[in-house]
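Predict structure. Chain length: 134.
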Amino acid sequence: MIYGRGYNLLNKLRGNAGFTLLEVLAVVALLGVLGAMLLPSLDSAAGRAKNARLESDLATIDNAILLYKMDNGTCPSALSDLVDEYIAKGKKFEDATGTELVYTPSGDKLTYTLKGKNADGEPVTSDGSSDAEE
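Prediction complete.
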């Protein structure tokens, strides 16, 4: 049987299966560089997600306080007064840093202030608060 010139080369390559150490190290180094570039992006995405959740939680609590005020004529004395009827059980009133939200009803209980901190530690006030910037 007659084989072309490529036949000898093909037989030689079949005997050398696998990667060299240098090739493996190059791939590992490249993956390390790509991973290092990706980490800051993932970190900022987590912060943005926490801030979005905080904004959503503040809006939900504002709505619950509004419903409470419509039913009772005044704002609740504490956020825990909203649990069961206006907010689901087990709801934690925490900001993006994991600390408890600060709820302060006014003296006449007709207005309130609801504050927390975003993922960067900057203060955030709910839109329904009497201190909210317009």
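Summary: The mean pLDDT is 85.
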